[in-house]
Amino acid sequence: MAGGMTSAMGSVPPLLSFLLMVAAGWVNRHQLIVIEFLQAENQLLKQRLRGKRIRFSDAERALLARKAKAVGREALLKLDTLVTPDTLMRWHRRLVAQKWDFSQRRRPGRPGIMREIAQLIVRMAQENAGWGYTRIQGALANLEHKVGRNTIANVLKRNGIEPAPERSKHTTWSTFLRAHWKVFAASDFFTVEVWTVRGLVTQYLVFVISLADRIVTIAGITTRPDETWMLQIARNVTDPLTGAMRGKCYLIVDRDTKYCEQFRRLIQDRNPGYSPSAHVAELECLR
After folding, report:
1. Tens digit of pLDDT for each residue in 50-109?
2. Of 38, 71, 108, 131, whose CB has the highest number of CB atoms within 10 Å?
3. 156: buried, middle or exposed (CB in 10 Å: 19+, 13-18, 0-12)?
4. 3-state secondary structure labels for all residues of the chain
5. How many CB atoms lie within 10 A of CB 61?
6. C-alpha atoms less than 13 angstroms from C-alpha of 90 in its C-beta half-sphere
7. CA distance 208 to 203
8. What pLDDT, in 10s, does the model give residues 212-232?
9. pTM as predicted
10. Nearest-CA neighbor of 98 among 62, 55, 69?
11. What count of other Cβ atoms lies within 10 Å of the Cβ of residue 174?
12. Which residue from 231, 187, 222 is spatially nearest to 207, judged by alpha carbons?
């Protein structure tokens, strides 16, 4: 057989052998030109990207991985491709990790406590200063709500309510505010400089903010916040239908003298939530 192959090769005419060598050289040279063109094209593309990453789909990653395997790591390093061999290996490791990722099969953990039950826990603690976690747990059980003591403790802590022994002794300022957040509003001034024909004029703007939902209402703006104007502001914000204090029981103000005595008295008289046992209808901020 070997002798037959040798005799067959030896039977090729010299001219044909020369033509085959020329054709092989031309094909090899053409392949090198194509590779050089692709390398130049990749370099220009990289310059346009300026370090930005290209997002490939899973199908595109699989295609590049198959082609890269046939080329080999050393050849890929010489070609300076958009996707490096290390990137291809990272894709492979990620694909393997996804194969063994069973997070989709996991069941959800313990459901969070319902908002209504949390509000009920806060209400029980506020209306019964001596009730501890166990007592509140028993009251909830009477209402057919099964809640653990730790859950009750966490709910009260989130709402700034102390445990029963401390709660029955005193109430801190922060605890009081958190427990009655929805009935509080606050008021303050800020100034705006406006250019007029008379020059730069200071405008005083008073606003009221609902502390529970952070809704801000502009109560008025004037260049002279005198007593008459402040009394009208008090009437506006305490209007039962459109006032900024509807549904509120307390207005927090600072010690600014623009909040005159008549303004404070009118707020107390017109505030529907005011009662003598609640001290005053407006509270001065602590210094």
Report:
1. 767 777 787 777 777 777 777 777 777 777 777 778 887 887 777 767 766 767 776 666
2. 131
3. buried
4. CHHHHHHHHHCCCHHHHHHHHHHHHHHHHHHHHHHHHHHHHHHHHHHHHCCCCCCCCHHHHHHHHHHHHHHCHHHHHHHCCCCCHHHHHHHHHHHHHHHCCCHHHCCCCCCCCCHHHHHHHHHHHHHCCCCCHHHHHHHHHHCCCCCCHHHHHHHHHHCCCCCHHHHHHCCCHHHHHHHCHHHEEEEEEEEEEEEECCEEEEEEEEEEEECCCCCEEEEEEECCCCHHHHHHHHHHHCCCCCCCCCCCCEEEECCCCCCCHHHHHHHHHHCCCCCHHHCCCEEECCC
5. 17
6. 5
7. 17
8. 888 999 999 999 999 999 999
9. 0.40
10. 62
11. 9
12. 187
Query: Which residue pairs from 124-131 have beta carbons closer than 8 angstroms and sit at least 24 positions apart in sequence?
Result: 125/156, 125/161, 125/164, 125/167, 126/161, 126/179, 129/164, 129/167, 129/168, 130/164, 130/168, 131/164
Torsion angles phi and psi, residue 208, rounded to 5 = -125, 130
CB 187 within 8 A of CB 245: no
Counting every residue, how long is the chain? 287
Tokens of 259: 């909040």
The answer to whether 194 and 223 have CB atoms below 8 angstroms apart is no
Task: Specify whether the CB–CB gap between 243 and 266 falls below 8 A.
Answer: no
Instruction: State which residues of the chain have pLDDT below 70.
Output: 1-12, 15-20, 22-25, 27, 30-31, 34, 36-37, 39, 43, 46, 51, 96, 99-100, 102, 106-113, 166-175, 271-287
